[in-house]
Amino acid sequence: MGTFSAILIEKGEAGQSVSLKQVDESQLPEGDVTIDVQYSTMNYKDGLAITGDGPVVRRWPMVPGIDLVGTVSESSNPQFKAGDSVLLNGWGVGEVHWGGFATKARLKGEWLVKLPSAFTGLQAMGIGTAGYTASLSVEALVNFGVKPSDGEVLVTGTPGGVGSVAVALLKKAGFTVVASYGDESEQEYLKTLGADSFIQRGELSEPGKPFQKERWGAVVDSVGSHTLANAIAQTKYRGTVTACGLAQGSDLKSTVMPFILRNVSLLGIDSVMCPQKPRQAAWDRLGRDLDPALLNTIAHEISLAEAIPAARDLIDGKIRGRLIVDVRR
Questions:
Q1: Same domain, 78 and 165
Q2: Could you tell me if 127 and 165 are in contact, meaning their C-beta atoms sit under 8 angstroms apart?
Q3: Residue 164: which residues within 8 A CB-CB, separation 6 or more?
Q4: Are 33 and 49 in contact (CB under 8 A)?
Q5: Element (H or E) spanning 124, and its range?
Q6: Above 70 in pLDDT, residue 320?
Q7: What pTM was computed for the model?
Q8: How far is residue 118 from each of residues 85, 228, 314, measured CA to CA in Å?
Q9: Are residues 175 and 142 in the same domain?
Q10: Which of 245, 251, 258, 325 is most buried by a 10 A CB count?
């Protein structure tokens, strides 16, 4: 066996240390698919793991990187063969199982999906967990029976990653999309994604009445807290709300009134442990409905070595857009 390059987080008596190392392939964890990794991404969770600012890592030593894309080099899983292009999001990778900040990964085949032919590996990582979560949300609405004729769809958390992709996918599916915004300068970008109209996020972010005027046929929320509570309170009779994030907070101060008087449905969206079939369906929707050109404005490429200092910059709020890690350089 040979060696491969990896960012390794280790823990000793002096505390946590992080370094770029050559690791023997015999140290790869258990799994039935081995991958030559091409790209990963720097997510907030990865930043916490590398800096040690949050209790993300639960096994030591650990290779961070909750997203990855690459080519299968070995497989004993019947779903995949050598040469297949595959990607991964979540499943505790980078927390309890070695992740994507390395040139090699060994994973369970049930965690993987095939890379849609519409995307390069670089583009898939430009989408990453955020875009995949947005697609899960749109899939949930469509599968639940929500139709464009049911009314406007509110998307909160824009122009963040989840919200931005949700706007684009909903517009492609024929919905009328209302996007929240913080600054008027964000509206032009949101229009290019497909937003039809806008709502100032301050109208949703403060405590509100638990039962408000009906406005939305459906909602895609990645914010939580007061924003989600207000969105639920404003959803039309038999409307549907998806919840996938907690950017504002994990609390939800509401009442049962919208659910029992308006028959509002609240659908939870989990991207980490989502089974393979709906996971593949979400990526298939992205491959079918998301214009890859939209990714060019939000992605910035860095090397594996640059990922260590970039983690601190990300946590300190100095990074804008998505950081894609080319692990081969």
A1: no
A2: yes
A3: 134, 158, 190, 193, 298
A4: no
A5: helix 121-144
A6: no
A7: 0.90
A8: 12, 33, 29
A9: yes
A10: 325
Boundaries of domain holding 53: 3-118+291-326
Q: What's the CA gap between 109 and 74, in Å, rounded?
A: 11
My answer on whether 258 and 135 are in the same domain is yes
| CATH code assigned at 191 | 3.40.50.720
Confidence at residue 298, expressed as pLDDT on a 0 to 100 scale: 67
Asked whether residue 63 falls in the same domain as residue 174, the answer is no
Distance CA 115, CA 311 (A): 26
Residue type, 45: K
pLDDT tens column, 72-101? 999 999 999 999 999 999 999 999 999 999
- What is the model's pLDDT at position 297? 65
What CA dihedral angle connects 92, 40, 89 and 128, to 10 degrees?
Answer: 140
> Residue 29: what residue type?
P
Per-residue confidence (pLDDT) for residue 247, from 0 to 100 = 87
pLDDT digit string, tens, across residues 31-47: 999 999 999 999 989 99
